[in-house]
Design a protein that fits this description.
The chain has 252 residues and is of the alpha/beta class. The strands form 2 sheets. It has a 6-stranded mixed beta sheet, with helices on both faces. Strands 1, 2, 3, 5 and 6 form a 5-stranded antiparallel beta sheet that branches. Helix 3 packs across helix 4. The longest helix is centred in the C-terminal third of the chain and has 16 residues. The chain starts with a strand and ends in a 14-residue tail after the last helix. The structure holds adenosine-5'-diphosphate (ADP) and magnesium ion. The site of magnesium ion (MG) has 5 residues, from helix 1.
C-alpha cells in the first residue's frame, strides 16, 4: 500500500504541554482520512506540522514519499499539496478574484490558467456575485469557501483541511462536501480534521482518533462500521469520564 502520509513518533511540545505525543500516522494515497478528536486534542498542531507551518519537537514526517526534514524535499513537496488552515489568512484587502490570482502567481501558474480556474472556482463556490467585496467583508462561510478555492487552484495531489465545516451553513456545507467528493474521485488524497463525529462518519474512508495528543485508534471506516458505531468507538477511545454530570452548585 502506497502512503501519502507517514509519521514516526511525531511530537510537539509547548512549554510543559505535550500537545502531540508520539503519533504514528498511516494515510494511504487516495483515501479520505478523518482525523477526529475532542477540542484541544492536538489536531491543529498535527496538521500544522504536516504542512510545514510548525516545526515538530520530535519524530519524522514523510509526505508523498518525501522526508520533510530535508528542506529541499519539503519545498518541492509543499508545491504538491493544498492547505486550508485553522486561521485562514486571506489578506483582508483583496477581493476573492485578486486573492486567487495572487495564489496562482505564487505557484508560478500561467496567467491564462489562473484566469480560467479562478472563474470556475468563483462560480462553483457561489462567489461570482461578490466581486466588489474585500475578503474582510466576507462572512465566515464565504471565507472558508474562498480558502478552499485557493487550496484547489494549483490542482494539488493532496489537500489538508482543518475543521473545514466549522461555522458553515447547511447549503455551503453541502457544496463543500460535493467539491471534496469530486476531489476524491479525481484521485486527490484528503486529510481532514474535525471534532464532529457525523462529518467524519458521512465522508471519510479512514479514521484516526486523537485524544490528549495520542493516536488512540486508526482504522478503515468499513471496519469500524462492521464492529459497531463510530460514536461508541469514539467514546470508548477518548474516555467518557467527562460525560459524568459535574456539580454546578447553583443548579442543585
Ligand atoms: N501555540 C501554542 N502555544 C501553546 N500551547 C498551544 C499552542 N497551540 C496549541 N497549544 C496547546 O496544544 C494543545 C492542542 O491544541 P490544538 O492542536 O489546537 O487542538 P485541537 O485542534 O485538537 O483542538 C492544547 O492544549 C493547546 O492549548
Ligand atoms: Mg483545532
Amino acid at each position: 500500500m502506497s502512503l501519502a502520509i507517514e509519521t514516526t513518533q511525531l511530537a510537539r511540545q509547548f512549554g510543559n504541554t505535550l500537545a502531540v505525543d508520539g503519533l504514528n500516522l498511516r494515510v494511504p494515497k487516495g483515501c479520505f482520512y478523518g482525523f477526529l478528536g475532542p477540542n484541544g486534542a492536538g489536531k491543529s498542531t498535527t496538521i500544522k506540522m504536516l504542512t510545514g507551518l510548525l516545526a515538530p519537537t520530535g519524530g519524522s514526517i514523510r509526505i508523498l514519499g518525501g522526508e520533510m526534514s530535508d528542506p529541499d524535499v519539503a519545498r518541492e513537496t509543499r508545491r504538491r499539496i493544498g492547505v486550508v488552515p485553522e486561521h485562514l489568512g486571506l489578506y483582508d484587502n483583496l477581493t476573492a478574484r485578486e486573492y486567487l490570482t495572487f495564489i496562482g502567481r505564487m505557484y508560478l501558474m500561467p496567467r491564462d490558467v489562473i484566469q480560467d480556474r479562478t472563474q470556475q472556482l468563483l462560480e462553483v463556490m457561489g462567489l461570482q456575485n461578490e466581486e466588489k467585496k474585500l475578503t474582510l467583508e466576507f462572512s465566515h462561510g464565504m471565507k472558508k469557501k474562498l480558502a478552499l478555492a485557493g487550496a484547489l487552484l494549483p490542482n494539488p495531489e493532496m489537500l489538508f483541511l482543518d475543521e473545514p465545516f466549522e461555522g458553515v451553513d447547511a447549503v455551503s456545507s453541502r457544496l463543500l462536501r460535493d467539491v471534496l467528493k469530486r476531489c476524491i474521485s479525481h484521485g486527490v488524497t484528503l486529510f481532514l480534521t474535525s471534532h464532529v463525529l457525523e462529518i467524519v462518519e458521512k465522508l471519510c474512508t479512514e479514521v484516526g482518533i486523537i485524544a490528549r495528543g495520542r493516536l488512540v485508534m486508526q482504522e478503515p471506516m468499513d471496519q469500524i462500521r462492521a464492529s459497531g458505531s463510530l460514536e461508541e468507538r469514539f467514546l470508548s477511545a477518548v474516555g467518557s469520564d467527562h460525560l459524568e454530570a459535574q456539580k454546578l452548585s447553583w443548579l442543585e
